Amino acid sequence: MKTYKYNLNNALNIDDLDYVYLEKENDKCTITIDTDYQAAYGMGERFNQINQKGLTVQSHVYEKFCNQGEISYCPIPFFFTNTGLGVYVDSWVIMEFDFDDKIKITIPKDSLGEFPEIYIFRGEPKDIIREYVGLTGKPFMTPKWSFGPWISANRWNTGELVEEQIDLLEKHKFPANVMVLEAWSDEATFYRWNENGEWKNPKEMIDKLHDKGIKLLLWQCPVIKKMEEGRFHKVNEEDWEHVKQKGLCIKNADGSPYTIPKRRWFSGSMIPDFTNEETIKWWFEKRQHLLDIGVDGFKTDGGEFVYDDDIKAHNGMTGIELKNAYASSYVQAYHDFIGKDRVLFSRAGYKGQQNFPMQWAGDQQSTWDELRHIILAGISLGMSGVPYWGFDIAGFAGELPSVELYERSTQLAVFTPVMQWHSEPIGGQFSEILPGIKGTNDRSPWNMALCYQDEDLIDRLRYHHNLRTNLLPYIYDQAKKSSETGIPMMKHLVLEYPEDELVYNIEDSFMFGDILVAPIIFEGKTDREVYLPDGMWTNLWTGETFTGNKKYQIDSGKERIPVFLRSGGGIALNLGEDKELGSYVGNGTEEYNNLCFYLAGDEGEYCFSDDLGNKILITWKDGINKTQVLSGNIQFDIIDNI
Question: Which of 9, 356, 445, 639 keeps 20 to 30 A from 343, CA to CA?
């Protein structure tokens, strides 16, 4: 592994690599890389395709409601090719990456008239990602509970509705570790609970959630809101005047407050300047009471609010940098505020985003096309050093998803870093654009079953939510490994099989640790083609073994997607009394019902560790298992089938 670092202000040419050329103009420079390659990966969260060859890509944080296409909430100026070349441009400015026969990177000067530093890597794909996160920060490890099932809906705007969801979870025996409340606040300050009696005792409610093993996240957005015409809110008015007088917001060139342009989300609102320590102090003093009563984190929505080049932040950055840097300053400020035992769920970000987990894929409609794009986004973001990511199961907006789409999306979500259902309510901000059906847009399992009169749906979905909690020891173990190495939890096959040309353009399956996941992403299908790379593979559902380096047509039925465990790999499981997949184990994360290990192949090694101080090494060969408890004192079983 080799890393080459260049300051583009000083380097007139790049002598160490004879296929890399630098051209300078007055206000920009162009890096040309003349190399043979078949695939380029990375560039952040990309909804259009994973292999970026043939595309021109902008590194621009930008918000688009649904069907993002080439737009990205979380672009990252880092990529690598199948031929072992990697590039990271350490700049906040919007750049253009042209992945043609030759790779061309166009880099404008920043607001100080400077060019950035650029890093060029040579090595294996995994080593290049490790080197990138070594420069920008290893992924910050989040608590185990953040990898359990999440539930969310915009319509939960009273304590009674929260109680109702708790009751429904218990009635249907669905596990949940996280609840997200979006419509909790006064819709004016976003730090005060709604004041019309909707929340009788927030602390008591949070304590009850905690007693049941459920953590609470509250929605946030970085605005000092301009109130709707005809609506007055005293505290909002006071905050507005304070921010203006103290200069705590992003400003125009003339020193006046910058406001979000017309026809944009929260138009007319000011945005806090998180490069100003006085802003940070004021902003989070207003929100400290939320942590004091037990709030476990925030859904840090928005952040894509900079549209002008000539605005300015306290630290001297202008809109030239802030179009990308603002979102990062926002989520970093929240990350520093909440500390290590809480989490964020952010939409927007840029380079180094892995330092402020977790990431959310933003807004999607409930369509099959959006489901296909979601997979691309999660894998590409992981290839850019951001491992903890999730999406809204079957989309959150528009008409209710079909039962089939909802089930296929749930089956996929089990094997992603964050598993969450979420929905926009009837009468919500997008109700006129994308109206719902049947009187409610609630994407809860029970409402889906009710709307479609499918009594068995809850049982089918319960299996997958239980499966998620069964897999939690394995998922958390994989998350720890990602935190230590930067290698994503959702891995493109090229990371594990860089010499196999057949994997370069596979964009509809991925590795989840030692598990290969091949989602069903087309309507009406129960089968699909699956390419299994080198080695032996075990079907997780049937136990059938398959030889690698071969394509198979796998029919997994309506209730499963094709999932295979690589020979030599193992899975740590928390199982119920029957020690079967899909068994209910509740919401607890601080102990195991039955810790079990499922091992694949005639020979292998699996080292498992958790957050409880346990570390276990298991090796096996020709039917003989050897176990070493390296730390802790935990009982466990090795099982032959699941």
Answer: 445
- Give Cα 60 distance to the centre of its chain: 18
Check if 508 is active-site: no
Burial (0-12, 13-18, 19+ Cβ within 10 Å), 29: buried
Q: How many helices (H) and strands (E) does the chain have?
A: 13, 32
Rounded distance between C-alpha atoms, residue 485 and residue 482, angstroms: 5
- Give φ, ψ of 170 to 5 degrees: -70, -40
Are 384 and 40 within 8 A, CB to CB? no
**Full DSSP string of 388-454:** -EEEETT-SBSSPPPHHHHHHHHHHHTTSSEEEE--PPTTSTTTTTS--STT-----HHHHHHHTT-
Q: What is the pLDDT of residues 621-631, one digit of tens each?
A: 988 999 999 99
How is residue 539 annotated by DSSP? Answer: E
- Examine the residue annotation and report whether 321 is marked as an active-site residue of this protein: no
| Rounded Cα gap, residues 307 and 316, in angstroms | 17
Catalytic residue among 301, 370, 424, 610: 301
* CA gap 509, 520 in Å, rounded: 9
Kind and range of the H or E run holding 480: helix 472-485
| Annotated active-site residue in 45, 127, 296, 363 | 363
Amino acid at 600: A
Distances in Å between the alpha carbon of 193 and those of 159, 181, 196, 291, 394? 11, 11, 9, 13, 30
Residues 6+ apart with CB under 8 A from 517: 412, 415, 509, 510, 511, 561, 562, 563
pTM of the model: 0.96
Burial of 100 (0-12, 13-18, 19+ CB in 10 A): exposed
Catalytic residue among 45, 304, 508, 514: 304
| Closest CA relative to residue 205, chosen from 139, 160, 138, 144 | 160
Q: Say whether 304 is catalytic.
A: yes
Maximal CA-CA distance, the chain: 76
Structure tokens at 143: 């608590």
What would the pLDDT profile of 476-526 be if each residue is shown by its tens digit? 999 999 999 999 999 999 999 999 999 999 999 999 999 999 999 999 999
Instruction: Give the chain's radius of gyration (CA, Å).
Output: 25
Indicate the SS3 state at residue 473. helix
